[in-house]
Amino acid sequence: MELRFDGQRVLVTGGSTGIGAAVVQAFGEAGARVAVHYNRSAEAAKEVLDGVTAAGADGLLVQGDLTQLGVPERVVQEVADQWGGLDILVNNAGDMVSRSKIEDASDELYEQIMALNLRQLFQCCRAVIPRMREGGGGAIVNVSSIAARNGGGDGAVLYATSKGAVSTLTRGLAKEVAGDNIRVNALAPGVIETLFHTRHTDAGKWDTMMGTIPLGRAGTPEECVAPTLLLASKDAGSFITGHMLEVNGGQLMP
Amino acid sequence: MDRFDLTGKIALVTGGGRGLGRGMALALAEAGADVVVVSRHQAELDETVRQLHAHKGQPLAVPADLSIPDAPREILTTVHEELGPVDILVHAAGLQVRKPALELTVDEWDKVQSVHLRAAFGLTQAVARDLIDRGTAGSLILVSSLTSNIGVRNTSAYSAAKSGIEGLMRTLALEWAPHGIRVNAVTPGFFHTELTDAMFQDPERREWMLGRIPLGRAGDADDLAGATIFLASDASAYVTGQAIPVDGGWLAG
After folding, report:
1. Best mutation site among B176, B238, B240, B251 for testing chain A: the one with the most A CBs within 10 Å?
2. Which residues of A are catalytic?
3. Within its chain, how far is the Cα of B68 from the centroid?
4. Which of A8, B11, B69, B151 could form a disulfide with B33 if both were Cys (CB 3.0 to 4.6 A apart)?
5. Set of chain B residues whose Cβ sits within 8 Å of the Cβ of A240
6. DSSP H or E segment with residue B186
7. Is residue A172 within 8 angstroms of chain B, CB to CB?
8. Is B238 part of the annotated catalytic residue set?
9. If DSSP codes are grouped into helix, strand and coil, which group holds residue B129?
10. Residue whose C-alpha is closest to residue B235's, from B13, B24, B31, B16
């Protein structure tokens, strides 16, 4: 069974690297039109878009710092206006910013983490719902984290808190828009080999984490692709909404 | 690249004669697997096999009664001889005794536990032993239920069994992860099958049920296909120990 998304209009935030880039490529190969949102990684985003067009699909780039007020709405509108609507939104953009114990964390760090992981995601959802409703429905896939349930690793409490809110928003919004034929789910990755850990995890911590994963290894961005496609597909995921799909090698079994 | 392809895999589906089990069997066949269906009822097996023939894989029917302790081992022996070793297990067989706990007999309790839970243990153990002997990765899927998560009156034996299914699933996922065997569950919401027909016929229960499903409808067998193929295939390579609800949003609250 191959999941197809022919002609569907997809926006992936944070689509230039890691999980986002892998998801963009897969949507392109499955026939979708894919908008690759990026902030600073213009060159990487261009390469990802080239991958999409090489797969014979239509794509576009959309730049924006989602932590700035007004930008998430502008990003969504720009893509939806270009294509006359949006069918799938993957809210992938996010980061830990930096590790810090709560007692050492500044108000600025808190604001930064919440703006990047939660506020813009809420704003993207708010902007896309009317456009999906106009088109008869759609699917939103939010990228949460294993941290949403386990409180996060060392110095990751604020990050975990923001992701916990993403999961809660996912459940509540799923109920709010189910009547509009919009499904809302979340992907909850565990330890995935991306720049996220290059930036935030040293070798010692990495080895410790590996020991806590039953499958004995980190996951790859590629392994987050099919779970995202399942949740996004109106065929394969038709009756799935409000769910956090944990992709963590067995590290957490809620 | 088709991450959901099951060509060349042998899938064993208990309860494959009707209802959700038949739907899951057909989904696996659609994804390319050779599908073995198990049921007590020959006529139902014949009909499922007839439908499986619409797909390219090789179907096989094995009549068996899973309330008999030796059944899992015997099924596996038959499949091995007639088709080959099993890569994918879906344990969908189940029965419902819908009555108040005060009226349930111990025999009824035992019967429900044996088909859901003891058979799940016997089947997963037999398949996993074989996979480990062969040094092959595999995917085991147990069918759970909303009753593992919420209270539904008049289903005490069934709810206990299904809750047990999820506990078993997590333990096996941990124990067999080093062998590349993934163990997960699907948690169907309300689907109209023979097991739930009584609820659908009762206007009050029906209204309660449909009114609480955010997507506003009961599920149909096709709705389970995506999650089933996902869990059976490399699409879920990094997913183990999870229960995936296919419930129209019920468990979102």
Report:
1. B238
2. 159
3. 18
4. B11
5. 226-227, 244-247
6. strand B181-188
7. yes
8. no
9. helix
10. B31
pTM above 0.90, yes or no: yes
Closest to A222 measured CA to CA, from A14, A18, A8:
A18
**Contact B37/B87 with Cβ under 8 angstroms?**
no
Nearest CA-CA distance, residue B183 and chain A, Å: 9
C-alpha–C-alpha distance, residues A159 and A164, integer Å: 9
What letter represents residue A110's amino acid? Y
Question: In chain B, positions 141-200, which contact chain A (CB-CB < 8 Å)?
Answer: 170, 173-174, 177-178, 189
For residues B186 and B227, the answer to whether their CB atoms sit within 8 Å is yes
**CB distance A226–B215 less than 8 Å?**
no
User: What ipTM score was computed for the predicted complex, to two decimals?
Assistant: 0.95
Instruction: Identify the closest residue of chain B to A190 by CA–CA distance.
Output: B238
Please state, in angstroms and as integers, the Cα–Cα distance from residue A116 to each residue in A96, A121, A246, B215, following that order: 9, 8, 21, 30
Active-site residue identified among B88, B92, B158, B236: B158
Q: Please report the pLDDT score of residue B1 as a whole number.
A: 66
Nearest CB to A1 within list B4, B173, B234: B4
Q: What is the pLDDT of residues A143-154, one digit of tens each?
A: 999 999 999 999
Do residue B238 and residue A220 have CB atoms under 8 angstroms apart?
yes
Structure tokens at B85: 């070793």
CA-nearest of A236, A99, A252 to A188 is A252
For B20-65, the pLDDT digits (tens) are 999 999 999 999 999 999 999 999 999 999 999 999 999 999 999 9
Contact predicate A19/A224, CB 8 Å:
yes
